[in-house]
């Protein structure tokens, strides 16, 4: 006969099982009810939506899709159809050449016949067809360029109309490349447009910058405002020896008298130019790329890029707000006239170079001799430090090159001492006192310093002597030698460089 405790245990277990079963059944019933209710609601919403769609009748006709596969309230008229037909015939050669020369008469007397012929036979690629690119395209077509490839992934929006060269309300929602083609065909019907409604990237650069009908591009125009695509395009052109000109940032600019065309190494006072130049230098490209840039500085009352509201950051990753990965998520303040000025300056450069017209721009910086001197001084400083730590310094090598020196001086420290801000008699030196084993002797017959670029700061020669004597060899702490302002400046600059280290 079972004892009392076992009976109680079985009864308790049975009761718990009943509760669990009851809870499971209740959950299933509630879940089913919720799902059923949602299904009923969806059914009603679909029925309401269908009921709201009017029946097709004589009073209600569906509009045709546009040539881009989108619905439009703007229907083509007879004039549009005539323009398209004329352009199709003109591209096949059915257009009087005397009429073309008459239309290009002013360019002809300026560039002469040879220059105009070179321009007319040129093949130009424009990457980015927004405010800058559209004005460049319009100027080139009007000047006689007969072969244009347009590359842009974006569509015309209402906000595009304050700066786009040719877009109208009727073009909103259509690809920018086709908008430009359709409008410019009405001006220069003989122009051959190759429209690529695509995002430029290094993976498809070979196809996007390929020859047209066997003709390699005579010039590439970079009118991209995304840093990754911009650097990829410029680096590709540099490697493949394609002539290119790049437009830097027109956002937040308003002074046309501060616009310059020069080598990328000379560009200043522009965040887009700075980021592009730094990324290219990290890839080994120091100069040799002409750019259009503005030296206008920010000031009180001037437009500036506003930070995102705190509530957007609170929602999570702000990158989720961007149209594509790594694209900006904020609206840039842009005065509509400035992209036009940038675009026309770019087109002017292409016209002069293609036609062979004489011109001179700002020269590139040539500071290789200075970088060699700084590299030699750094070598000497490392040897003295090694001797002070008890190492044999003869034959000591440092893993820093002339390109590394130029990158640190120009892009990280902007050609100025981090301590005093002076721009003369510059050199590089370790900032923190190294650990005892900072010389690698594991490779037979070779001694090399474990120095890294992130260890170095830019100072004047006089400041370097003081820093070496007091901090690196003398053993004083940084806070005993420098005030909080200098320490913060160095820390900020080093943090900034860490963000760019992945591009090296």
UniProtKB/TrEMBL annotation:
Annotated coiled-coil segments of the chain: none
Pfam families: ThiF
Membrane association type: Multi-pass membrane protein
Alphabetical list of Gene3D superfamilies matching this protein: NAD(P)-binding Rossmann-like Domain (3.40.50.720)
Transmembrane segments: 20-37, 122-141
GO biological process: cyclic threonylcarbamoyladenosine biosynthetic process
Record's subcellular location: Mitochondrion outer membrane
Function: Catalyzes the ATP-dependent dehydration of threonylcarbamoyladenosine at position 37 (t(6)A37) to form cyclic t(6)A37 (ct(6)A37) in tRNAs that read codons beginning with adenine.
Record-given protein name: Ubiquitin-protein ligase-like protein molybdopterin-converting factor
Origin species: Massariosphaeria phaeospora
């Amino acid at each position: 006969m079972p004892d009392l405790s076992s009976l109680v245990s079985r009864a308790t277990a049975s009761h718990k099982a009943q509760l669990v079963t009851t809870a499971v059944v209740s959950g299933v019933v509630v879940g089913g009810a919720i799902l059923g209710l949602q299904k009923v609601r969806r059914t009603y919403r679909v029925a309401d939506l269908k009921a709201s769609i009017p029946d097709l009748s004589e009073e209600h006709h569906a509009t045709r899709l546009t040539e881009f596969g989108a619905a439009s309230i703007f229907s083509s008229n007879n004039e549009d159809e005539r323009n398209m037909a004329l352009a199709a015939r003109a591209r096949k050669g059915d257009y009087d050449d005397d009429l073309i020369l008459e239309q290009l008469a002013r360019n002809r007397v300026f560039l002469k016949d040879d220059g105009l012929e070179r321009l007319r036979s040129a093949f130009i690629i424009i990457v980015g067809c927004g405010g800058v690119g559209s004005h460049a395209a319009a100027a080139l077509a009007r000047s006689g360029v007969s072969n244009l490839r347009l590359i842009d992934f974006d569509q015309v929006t209402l906000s595009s109309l304050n700066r786009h060269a040719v877009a109208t309300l009727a073009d909103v929602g259509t690809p920018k490349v086709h908008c430009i083609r359709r409008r410019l065909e009405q001006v220069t019907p003989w122009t051959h447009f190759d429209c690529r409604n695509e995002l430029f990237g290094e993976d498809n650069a070979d196809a996007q910058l390929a020859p047209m009908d066997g003709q390699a591009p005579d010039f590439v125009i970079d009118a991209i405002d995304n840093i990754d695509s911009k650097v990829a395009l410029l680096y590709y052109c540099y490697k493949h020896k394609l002539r290119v000109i790049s437009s830097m940032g027109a956002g937040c600019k308003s002074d046309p008298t501060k616009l310059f065309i020069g080598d990328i190494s000379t560009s200043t006072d522009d965040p887009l130019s700075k980021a592009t130049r730094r990324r290219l230098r990290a890839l080994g490209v120091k100069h040799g790329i002409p750019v259009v840039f503005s030296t206008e500085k920010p000031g009180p009352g001037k437009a500036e890029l506003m930070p995102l509201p705190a509530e957007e950051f609170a929602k999570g990753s702000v990158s989720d707000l961007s149209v594509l990965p790594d694209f900006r998520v904020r609206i840039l303040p842009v005065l509509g006239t400035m992209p036009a000025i940038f675009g026309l300056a770019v087109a002017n450069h292409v016209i002069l170079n293609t036609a062979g017209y004489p011109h001179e721009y700002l020269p590139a910086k040539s500071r290789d001799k200075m970088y060699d001197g700084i590299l030699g001084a750094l070598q000497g400083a490392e040897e003295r430090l090694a001797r002070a730590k008890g190492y044999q310094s003869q034959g000591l090598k440092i893993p820093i090159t002339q390109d590394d020196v130029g990158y640190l001086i120009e892009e990280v420290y902007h050609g100025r001492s981090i301590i005093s801000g002076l721009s003369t008699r510059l050199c590089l030196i370790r900032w923190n006192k190294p650990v005892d084993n900072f010389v690698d002797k594991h490779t037979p017959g070779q001694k090399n310093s474990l120095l890294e670029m992130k260890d170095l700061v830019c100072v004047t020669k006089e400041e370097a002597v003081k820093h070496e004597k007091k901090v690196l060899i003398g053993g004083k702490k940084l806070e005993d030698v420098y005030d909080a302002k200098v320490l913060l400046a160095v820390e900020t600059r080093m943090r900034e460089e860490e963000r760019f280290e992945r591009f090296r």
